[in-house]
Known about the structure:
The chain is mainly α. It contains four helices and no strands. Keywords: Membrane, Transmembrane, Transmembrane helix.
Amino acid sequence: MTNILVAIILVVAIIAIVWFLVKQLSVIVVNAICGIIGLFLVNFLHVMQWMGKPDLGYDAATLLICAIGGIPGVLILMLLGILGITI
Length: 87
């Protein structure tokens, strides 16, 4: 009887952990998509050229920062570009 109870508790715990990870993964994916779209819009609208600076570009480091950081990552890259620090 206790073996069945322990098995049920373990299954419920595993389901809860998987559910939490799936929810977090969806938030991370949405954040990454928003960051890449934000980078595309900044480059498409030439926002950096309004301030007399070159566009951000699409190299590996820029895409990785935007994918991990999302919209704040794009804003940090813009700030670094305004200050003259290239990545």
